UniProtKB/TrEMBL annotation:
EC number: 2.3.1.225
Protein name as it appears in the record: Palmitoyltransferase
Main location: membrane
Superkingdom of origin: Eukaryota
GO cellular component terms, A-Z: membrane
All residue ranges annotated as the Palmitoyltransferase DHHC domain in the record: 8-147
Catalyzed reactions per annotation: L-cysteinyl-[protein] + hexadecanoyl-CoA = S-hexadecanoyl-L-cysteinyl-[protein] + CoA
Molecular function in Gene Ontology: protein-cysteine S-palmitoyltransferase activity
């Protein structure tokens, strides 16, 4: 059944019946994480590098006398007390935003940091795995067949012979067979949009390069 490998977090093997689903899951998850990273980069920079980006900024100059705070710890005598209204000058009213709770800022900071770590890890892990499987699909191989073909190539090379993968029909045809783009199926309808179409064949018998010429003369829908 062309079992490729065992996936621990799915508790299942990836093979003939679910290879396409697993591959598209990795690709779309990687693209989704990239989307979050690209369009959330500004939020992450403001929160993790600069500040939370929600502090108060002065948009107009304040009028009145400056206020000095005594942070030295020493008691200073008051030599003059000025009450507003005695000289006919009233204080200028400014509506300042209420500062956020420190706990909320800390929770927001941790949440953004968690999201950043998760998305970067997903892009690195699933992105590299998707790239590797893309190269295998282009060569018409599974992960197990890659090791078998490598061993056979080395063995026959030592004998002065060349080895040809019997399931390699070229990159374009390999991808069409893998995605099931036969019998009128299209990229937009059956790849970009969710589709439950089954892979072609039974998973027990397989067409090979040597039988391709016979398939082209038959009535089968062969890409």
């Amino acid at each position: 059944m062309t079992t490729g490998w065992y996936v621990a977090w799915l508790n299942n093997c990836v093979g003939f019946g679910n290879h396409r689903y697993f591959f598209l899951y990795m690709v779309y998850t990687t693209l989704g994480s990239l989307f979050i990273i690209i369009f959330g980069m500004g939020i992450g920079i403001n929160s993790l590098v600069l500040s939370d980006g929600e502090g108060w900024f002065e948009t107009e100059p304040l009028e009145g006398h400056p206020v000095r705070f005594n942070i030295s710890g020493h008691a200073l005598p008051i030599t003059e007390m000025n009450e507003y209204g005695e000289d006919g000058v009233m204080p200028v009213h400014h509506d300042l935003p209420v500062p956020h709770e420190l706990g909320n800022n800390a929770a927001k900071h941790r949440a953004i940091l968690f999201m950043a770590i998760i998305n970067v890890a997903v892009v690195l892990a699933l992105g590299s795995l998707s790239f590797w499987h893309s190269s295998l699909i282009g060569r018409g191989e599974t992960s197990i067949e890659a090791y078998i073909n490598r061993a056979e190539t080395k063995r026959l090379t030592n004998l002065g012979k060349s080895y040809t993968n019997p399931y390699n029909f070229g990159k374009k045809k390999n991808w069409r067979l893998f995605l099931g783009l036969v019998k009128g199926r299209s990229w937009w309808r059956h790849v970009l949009l969710p589709s439950t179409h089954k892979p072609e064949g039974t998973g027990l018998t397989w067409h090979t390069v040597s039988s391709e010429s016979q398939l082209l003369q038959s009535e089968d829908d062969w890409p």
